[in-house]
Amino acid sequence: TKDWNGIDNIVLRNPRGASARVSLHGGLVTSWRNEQGEELLFTSSKAIFEPPKAVRGGIPICFPQFGNCGSLEQHGFARNKIWTIDESPSPLSPNDSHGKSFIDLLLRPSEEDLKCWPHSFEFRLRVSLAADGSLTLLSRIRNVNGKPFSFSFAYHTYLSVSDISEVRIEGLETVDYLDNLCQKERFTEQGDAITFESEVDRVYLSTPNVVAVLDHERKRTYVLRKEGLPDVVVWNPWEKKSKSMVDFGDEEYKQMLCVDGAAIEKPVTLKPGEEWTGRLELSVVASTLSSEH
Ligand code: BG6
After folding, report:
1. Which CATH number fits domain 9-291: 2.60.120.560, 2.70.98.10, 1.10.287.130, 3.40.30.10?
2. How far is the CA of 236 from the centre of ligand 1 (A)?
3. Contact 138/96 with Cβ under 8 angstroms?
4. Pairwise CA distance, residues 73 & 88, whole Å
5. Pocket test for ligand 1, best of 182, 204, 205, 235 (most atoms within 8 A of CB)
6. Predicted ipTM?
7. Pairing label, strands 176-179, 158-160
8. Relative to the CA of 156, which ligand 1 atom is closest?
9. Domain boundaries defined on the chain
């Protein structure tokens, strides 16, 4: 299928009716639906689907820079580029394709990209939908340059939630974080679980590989399993910041939460010929009584 502006979209379906949609604009997963057809990712009603703008929603890929700490535009250029379909992906382990519906995308730097970030790379992204409806993003970034380079990375995952005040994150208790709202000062998470009552913009460091986002009202829990992604970004713009974003509704902060598998604090360094892999698996389970205290 195509976007209204002519950019290709790929739709993945599993036999039970779950689906995912991936756009070549940014290699962005724009939709992920369960068997009941319910949308699990948030996309703003004001999102602008116009390259080279980044889309407000789905799962934008932040590469080769997360945030605005480096010399590049905020969150790097990968999310703004038009990716291609990788017709001959290099072999992956059977686990990465067995019983799954998947698509392989490829991003190589353009002349223009090389001017602002002079490192040749091949970025292969496999998006797959499993028989149980879980969604996996597998990124493989290879240095095809003569010199080493370093990057930071995040799957900026916009989860759809019923009401942010009813949501909590489990798995980040006692973990250290950098607070973007306070000059990146370092704190340690104290509480039982993270809940939301104001703007949150944090990078949790060296986190466990499984994090859960519990949506009490919908009785739905998102489970994020990650590999190669030590950090977790947690972001909700809340009221004031929402009003300052042109591509985001004033009240939409109530229906979304970004929880990103990421590699930020310690940038990844690749020597010539080396490859890095970062995997994120998203699944949904109905909340159990034991997790509803
Ligand atoms: C978050 C950053 O991850 O992304 C925030 O920590 C930022 O500071 C947010 O506001 C959204 O970024 P952007 O570039 O998509 O507006």
Report:
1. 2.70.98.10
2. 9
3. yes
4. 31
5. 235
6. 0.97
7. unpaired
8. 3
9. 9-291
